[in-house]
Amino acid sequence: MPNPDFNLLLTLDAVLTEGSVARAAKRLRLSPSAMSRALTRLRETTGDPLLVRAGRGLVPTPRALELRELVNHLVQDVEAVLRPAEQLELTQLQRTFTLRSSDGFVENFGAELISRISAQAPQVRLRFVQKLDKDSSALREGSVDLETGVIGNTTGPEVRTRALFRDHAVGVVRIGHALSEGEISPSRYASGQHILVSRRGLNKGPIDEALKSLGLEREINTFVSGFSAALALARGSDLITTVPERHTRALRAGMHTFALPFSTPEITISMLWHPRMDADPAHRWLRNLVFDVCSAN
Question: How many domains does the chain have?
């Protein structure tokens, strides 16, 4: 069976609605000859004359009467699909968005994001899922709507990104720790016992590379996979942890934070989404909200 010509639906709808070939031609802005050819094709396709002569006018056949309402609904549905998206009504929006983020992002920005969403779109819900890697398949498959983090080598080339903020590493110890007083030199920093944060289970990181360039090496006492665990351990011990400053601002309350006495590379935290969500008004609203929350903190 050949592929159907969906343009014939518009012609059929016009013919059945107007009950006149001339009026249907005018409605579709077709010439009488073009309309006549279209009607011939409709008759061949449906296997029915559709309109037959009755005196000076035309009357629909039983098949035409049977099709009239169905075709009209089909045309309206097609027009609705092709119509530009209507203006977003946030107060009526009912949707659950899944955000894949690190614990630090949720703990630092989550409360403000939820507060703004509740004020603007009270029926919208957020589902935060933990980010264990940089694989983009969840965005591609649609199980995740939006992701935050550092763009990596495994990020899909089709993924859209927007930078949220730049971050840098700081040292953190408990109040009363020896490093909470006095000038901190690279050797003084390196001489303590440290907590290393690595989701991938690495034994060294950028801090160790920076110290190595100065001829120094730190002793890593404990390995953890997240900033929350690192800060919790440092809060209750003499261990030193090094974490991103903005990412952990809320978590470091009641602790002593100090600038590192050597240079470390900055990192850019971005949000990532699949291109099929670009034009979705609700998704665009969420992206702008996340950007505004991160810019304000």
Answer: 3
pTM: 0.66
Does residue 229 fall inside a structural domain? yes
> Do both 198 and 248 map to the same domain?
yes
Same domain? For 96 and 231 the reply is no
pLDDT at 1: 46
pLDDT digits (tens, 9 = 90+) for 9-21: 888 888 888 888 8
1 domain residue, yes or no: no
* Angle formed by the axes of helices 103-120 and 281-296, nearest 10°: 120
Burial label for 144, CB within 10 Å (0-12, 13-18, 19+), is: buried
Task: Give the residue-averaged pLDDT of 31-45.
Answer: 87
Quick check: 22 and 15 in contact, CB under 8 A? no
Q: Where are the alpha helices (DSSP H) in 121-236?
A: 137-141, 186-191, 206-213, 227-235
What's the rounded Cα separation, in Å, for the pair 99 and 289?
Answer: 13
Domain encompassing residue 147: 90-167+268-296
The verdict on 259 and 174 lying in the same domain is: yes
Contact between 114 and 126 under an 8 Å Cβ cutoff? The reply is yes
- Using alpha carbons, list the distances in angstroms from residue 217 to 133, 193, 210, 263: 28, 11, 9, 15
Domain boundary among 48, 82, 116: 82
Q: Are residues 111 and 150 in the same domain?
A: yes
List phi, psi (to 5°) of 200.
-95, 5
Span of 42-56, 110-124, 213-227, 237-251 with lowest mean pLDDT: 42-56
